[in-house]
Amino acid sequence: MTDHDPILAKIRKLLAKAEDQAATEQEAELYTAKAAALIADYGIDQALLAEAVPGADVVGDRVVDLEAPYAKDKAELLADVAVRLRCRAVLRRSRGGAGTIHSVHLFGHESDLVRTDLLFTSLLMQSATWLSRTPVPHLDHPAAFRRSWMAGFRIAIANRLSDAERVAEEAAAHRTAASGRSTGLVLADRSAQVTQRVAETYPRLGTARPRKLSGSGMSDGFDAGQRADLGGAAGGRFAGNRQSLPAS
What we know:
Radius of gyration: 18 Å
Number of domains: 1
Number of helices: 7
Distance between the termini: 39 Å
Largest sheet: 3 strands, antiparallel
Shape: globular
């Protein structure tokens, strides 16, 4: 799980092509299909390798601070990506000098945290690009429209990630069936380890209530989420402020 991993390098190259401003929507969609499959397969491969080599992929955690504008919406996107990639996410907020501070406490095996890092950084950049190109309807408040757009984007991404992970799990189960290894049991055991770590850290964790959104941008955001590349991004750790969304 280093910067020299050939699979991660290939994912980054696909993403670089998809993020190119000159790329057409059709080209981005082609990169998306391949990248989504690669990142799902990478997660399965790392899980099976760790099962054979105990201690190779331990459970870790990290806190990601999200910056305005739309910090809460970014946090919700990160949480949805993390959960689909077999991590757990605790949304947090606190008061600071500039107002409410939103952050996400992530838990997961290192390989899954790496996948979440790459993908969220990419999606944050892509959503900012697509949203900047989407006109706000005349009768909509800009902030309300953009929040609903981001909700639609997030839903589409979550659906696509769930599908990609399911396909990768089914393919892995077929490959390993003859050896007697159960991919499902391996993944279930890993999920239980992460869940236990969350429970130890947050023994009284509650359930977040869904927000009510008034803007009309959900359909446009969903369509953009269908086009987004799911590969990853070249660069550092959970760059939540790397590219800002349009201000209200």
